[in-house]
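Section 3.1: Structural characterization of target chains.
Under the original work plan, the team committed to producing a structural model for every single-chain target entering the pipeline before any wet-lab resources were allocated. The record below documents one such target. The sequence was received from the expression subgroup and is listed exactly as submitted; it comprises 132 residues.
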Amino acid sequence: MNKQYEVEIQDKERMRVEYEKEIHHLKKQLQAAEQENKKLLDTLIKHSKGEDILKSKDQFAPGSAQAIFRQSQARSNWNKPIGKTKTRTLTLKQLKDLINDIYTQKVKYDQKCEESRLPRETMEQFMYTYLN
């Protein structure tokens, strides 16, 4: 009976130590989240005043929402066309006809893929094929 009591005391102590570690870890996470929220609020205020948020010198933690936003802004320059591109202005009717034709061709292509037991393309992938 005495051994069982000692085992229970040790288990209780172990659980207390784990609990304290978890509290410490959660307090660190809360502090980091509060700091990030403050930086994002400052950025939001700057943006609402018309200041350029991308030129801000504030450093954000990797993986934070602001760091991810900056990475996506930097990558958006990658999608710009290289060289000159032709632009064509379409009437609303022409645009609707084009969209309907894309959908029609996509359905036909999906049927061919199903008959051939090939994987279907996403609409985005098909549009690249269609427009080229």
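The chain has a mean pLDDT of 81.
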